[in-house]
Write a structure and sequence with these properties.
By secondary structure, the chain is of the alpha/beta class. It is 44% helix and 14% strand. It binds a DNA duplex through helix 6, helix 10, helix 20, helix 27 and helix 28.
DNA sequence: ACTGCGCCAGTTTTT
DNA sequence: CTGGCGCAGT
């Protein structure tokens, strides 16, 4: 989304109407020129916030001319610098808000920056181009859609739509979608788009072996289909912009002239396409300021290139590099632990973060028997902390994968600990919401065949596969959109009378709704559509447990729509901002993924699940090897540096995945934490890593003095449930256990193998009954 | 055309 | 354990 209040701002692309200049001196000062000195008078008088910055921050905020790269470590006041810089530009009258482009990577970062900007300078920021790359690109693209063969009201597809479309394309090309999953093709195409490559620009070196080398042809077909659907996907938003810039010098010049100052947040997360986009725009005035931290680059899997930071000075000659190394967030202990960990990465620019103040508590590392015990011990510690006066809002549980949240939710529910899951299941991805939105999409944009197909037979109208096939056939024959073809089809005898009648009725409904859309507000419209289409009735008559909840969600959707001026605004919001603000007030513990935690900070942070395979995640290692490992390590670094006062790392010796138990070994990241900044509190027998051996504070003997919380836990369930068995034995190669073998399992006891399927065993235990377990978790008895 | 069954596979992170 | 998908039966 673009946070631009002045949507009516007539952005004149001819450049014939330069903005009025009530502020003397604004225009000439805007000329590029790294050596032009700032205006001392304006600077001093108008930027009181500068005084609150340290020397490096201040330099970053004041160096307005030319290219500036700010390497901002975690907690060094990065956003503050950006916002102050913005204020400084305005106060020094170097530009109007509408001449400043501020891009971020995530919606959350955009939201935060907007909040801070308006908090600092209030309404003066109106007209600012502030938003995510994608949101800004949409805004540009709407104005020049024709240049890439789209209409201005094009739709933006989400992953789900993309997959369905790709599947269609692949089926049309007679490809076995079992053998070649559409997901794989999606990944290949996305990679190309992240690198700024359209179908015409993919070179032999960039080829993929997907579907025996047919990926590129499929890519081309897919792009063609998108065009007929008047749609584009996320990658296209950037790619189409680049195409326009490349082919229309006048358009590019105009934006170059417009954006006198460019600010980029989270620069380490930009991909090649975004980098090219920025470089093109910055070639106008050259006043570009990128803020980033190579140690916090965690989106490599999405095409982000840390290399963009490294090559900055090359591409912007004379660029000034400023390092922010004073950390204002964490205690020295936490900072030192995090720094020690990240030092294991080879590919980094290197920074030396420092901080002042009391040492604080060491990072606590604890090992537990399984995931449930882990959740329990976290819950107990939270109760202890909140009892001691720490607000639940200031506590966060940061997990590696979304699926880890469940154990904590269950535990917190039974312990009556209020919590919120941030970034959980997304509102706009729920089925009923997607269905309702599909109706709205067809109303707003009749060419949106994917949406039309989605709701054609929802609720049931007797328009099944045969009807869809007929419509598709007609569309292909005429080269028209699906709805157009459907309209033509009802005039023929192609369909069975019943289907024909139903389809006619539906098309009439849409015509009526479209008329209503012209006058009624989006919320009223949605209510009408959900009702008249029979969609609400469908769920009312549905006799499943979740049907009432779905109806509730539909109501919430209508409420959400009330905030939007037009249907188009709303649909854009849905596409770009998949989450839905739920005002969960009150003090609650925050549960979220590590990715979701970037940019946030809390007094207390729990970091569970530090186990090999989970964190670092096996898939990251498999797919990206050493680079993947480094990215995982950066993720760990991000997690630790979210904490102001306390950080708790934990691992479980056993974890249930799907339905089988797996034994786990502690993450290598635990061993990499510098021992002198860590306090280990591990039940006997669960951990024998190098850290514990080297560390004098390693204490597991009951009765030994330690913090109250640790003592409580040791006396509790964990110590009781931890056996002194040799976990390491279970970590080796899984034994080839055959049927009938007698085995021992540390949790379930003795049993006999009933079924053996590779590493998956089904075992009849003498006491615990039949269970499915992994071979690596049992030993021959 | 719809429903139900059974089989399979999957779970990293986000715009 | 879920959910999605393909297949067979009604």
């Amino acid at each position: 989304m673009c946070y631009n209040a002045a949507m009516s701002d007539p952005f004149d692309l001819t450049g014939a109407a330069p903005e009025p200049g009530p502020q003397p001196g604004a225009s000439p000062r805007a000329e590029p020129g790294a050596d032009s000195p700032p205006q001392p008078g304006a600077t001093e008088a108008a930027a009181p916030f500068l005084d609150a910055l340290n020397a490096q921050q201040r330099e970053a905020a004041e160096s307005l001319d030319g290219a500036v790269l700010v390497l901002a470590g975690a907690g060094t006041g990065k956003t503050r610098v950006l916002v102050t810089r913005l204020d400084h530009i305005l106060a020094a009258r170097r530009a109007f808000p509408g001449q400043i482009l501020a891009v971020t990577f995530t919606n959350k970062a955009a939201r935060e920056m907007l909040e801070r900007v308006t908090g600092l300078i209030g309404g003066a920021a109106e007209g600012l181009w502030l938003g995510t790359f994608h949101a800004i690109c949409v805004r540009i693209l709407r104005r020049h859609a024709e240049a890439v063969g789209l209409k201005p009201n094009f739709t933006i597809l989400d992953t789900d739509d993309q997959l369905r479309l790709l599947k269609q394309v692949m089926e049309a090309a007679n490809l076995d979608t079992q053998r070649w999953p559409p997901r794989g093709l999606l990944a290949v195409i996305q990679r190309w788009k992240d690198r700024g490559l359209g179908p015409d620009r993919v070179t032999a070196a960039e080829q993929s072996d997907f579907a025996a080398g047919r990926a590129l042809a499929l890519y081309d077909l897919y792009q063609g289909r998108l065009k007929t659907l008047n749609a584009c996907d996320f990658g296209d938003l950037l790619l189409h912009c680049l195409t326009i810039f490349a082919g229309h010098a006048d358009v590019l010049n105009d934006y170059q002239r417009r954006f006198r100052f460019i600010l980029v947040d989270e620069y380490q997360d930009t991909n090649v396409a975004q980098y090219l986009w920025l470089r093109l725009l910055a070639q106008g005035g050259g006043n570009i300021c990128c803020v980033g931290d190579d140690d916090q680059s965690i989106y490599g899997w999405r095409g982000a290139e840390v290399g963009n930071i490294l090559r900055f000075e090359k591409d912007f000659p004379g660029a000034k590099v400023i390092r922010l190394e004073r950390n204002y967030r964490s205690t020295p202990q936490i900072l030192a632990a995090a720094s020690g960990l990240i030092a294991h990465n080879a590919g980094r620019l290197g920074k030396t973060l420092w901080t002042e103040g009391d040492d604080g508590a060491k990072v606590r590392v604890s090992g537990v028997w399984d995931g449930e015990a882990e959740a329990l011990s976290v819950a107990e510690e939270i109760e202890f902390l909140t009892g001691g006066g720490i607000s639940a809002d200031e506590i966060a549980v940061l997990v590696r994968t979304g699926s880890q949240t469940r154990a904590f939710e269950e535990r917190f529910l039974s312990s009556a600990i209020p919590y919120r899951v941030i970034g959980g299941p997304r509102f706009y991805e729920r089925r009923e919401i997607r269905d309702a939105v599909a109706y709205l999409r067809v109303i707003a944009q009749a060419d949106d065949g994917l949406a039309f197909e989605r709701i054609l037979n929802v609720p049931k109208r007797g328009l099944g596969g045969a009807s869809i096939a007929a419509i598709h056939r007609a569309a292909r024959a005429e080269g028209t959109a699906l709805t157009t073809a459907a309209a033509a089809l009802v005039g023929t005898d192609e369909l069975r009378p019943q289907a024909r009648r139903q389809l006619t009725g539906l098309l009439e409904d849409f015509a009526r709704w479209r008329e209503a859309a012209a006058t009624a507000g989006p919320a009223v419209l949605a209510e009408t559509v959900i009702d008249e289409s029979g969609y609400a009735a469908m769920w009312r008559n549905h006799k499943s447990a979740d049907a009432p909840g779905r109806l509730e969600n539909l109501g919430e959707l209508v409420t959400a729509l009330e905030e939007f001026e037009s249907l188009g605004d709303f649909l854009e919001h849905v596409a770009l901002v998949m989450e839905h603000d739920q005002d969960e007030a009150g003090e609650m513990v925050n549960i979220m993924t590590l990715h979701g935690a970037k940019g946030l900070e809390f007094d207390v942070v729990f970091l569970p699940g530090w186990e090999e395979g989970l964190f670092p995640h096996q898939r990251a290692l498999d797919e990206n090897g050493a680079a993947g490992l480094e990215e995982e390590r950066r993720l760990a670094y991000v997690g630790l540096t979210r904490a102001r006062r306390r950080a708790y790392v934990s691992f479980a010796a056993n974890r249930r995945l799907f339905n089988l138990w797996q034994s786990a070994i502690p993450s290598r990241f635990i061993d990499e934490l510098p021992g002198e900044h860590v306090e280990v509190d591990v039940a006997q027998g669960l951990y024998s890593g190098g850290l514990a051996k080297a560390e004098s504070s390693y204490h597991f003997a009951p009765g030994q003095a330690s913090s109250g919380a640790a003592r409580r836990r040791r006396g509790g369930r964990m110590a009781a449930s931890a056996p002194d068995g040799d976990q390491a034995a279970a970590q080796g190669e899984p034994d080839a256990l055959r049927r009938g073998a007698r085995v021992f399992h540390q949790k379930f006891g003795y049993g006999k193998v009933v079924e053996a399927d590779g590493a998956k065993l089904e075992i009849a235990f003498e006491k615990a009954g039949r269970k499915k377990v992994m071979a690596g978790f049992v030993e021959p008895a």
